[in-house]
Write a structure and sequence with these properties.
Length: 335
Amino acid sequence: MISEDNIQSAISAGILDEATANALKAHTNADNSASGDVADEEHFRLISGFNDIFVVIASVLLLSSLSWIGGAKLGSLLAATAAWGLAEFFVLKRRMALPAIVLLLAFVGYLLIATKGFISPTSAASGASDVAQFLIIPSTVAALAAWLHWLRFKVPITVAAGTAALVATVLASLMSFESITPYLAPLAITAGLAVFAFAMRWDSKDTQRQTRKSDVAFWLHLLAAPIIIHPVFELIGVLHGNINLVQASLVFVLYIVIAVISLLIDRRALMVSALGYVVYVFSTLLSDMGHVGIGFAVTAFTIGSALLLLSAFWHKCRGGLLGLVSAKLKGYLPN
């Protein structure tokens, strides 16, 4: 399969011109549509061969050993530096997808750990405000690290990693004020919706899902989903047991809304993030009603069957929904 990177490389080498490259993309899309391999299948490059796994295992061993030998502060800095150096070869030159993801997470993660070590090398934070202040500077450093990594390597997950660090910085800053703590769940939902909007901005730039922008949007949707879903279910009050029928009904309606949104934007991340909560709610409800032995089994069977049917008729359901939205809105959605 010819990727966008392959085409851009061919253009840079003078093998293809822009017109020929666009014609090749159009022809490939037509072939994919005819064979059922359509743009909205959420393709993203994760692994190109077993060598990806081989390189990841070797990289993890190397970075872990450096971190262990150097200690909490110096070791983390050594590991972060090594992760950048490895990316210079395996990402820029070899263009390996899985090592690119792992090395990016290692670079950002080790810098975050090193920053924590320099800020508080001997004592751990205690209390909400102390924990928040303990996280503000490390998460800010992590966001800057992700930005620098993006400028150099353009790995799609980097934008999501940097955004996650920014969200952590904002929430940690707010948590440093004790009066804000009771409103943390609504604030987290707001942050999640902002990430979702950011993901949709990337999605709207590539409605055909042919370029790196679509991969960036995928990871941002994957980040936004749990930030939105967890505090929503926390506010409904279903995470502490003793679930009643009203709460279960709210969860059911909420999941239907999530499914409709997922169909419209053609992203399954929201549904996957909420799935565990839905299974927990209804299995707990059945157990409270006396069906202790089969509560989980019945719930898993029912939801699993429904999701398989939705997957089988995804395109038909989505086509019906798209017929109900305006042409202007449809222009921002995947074709």
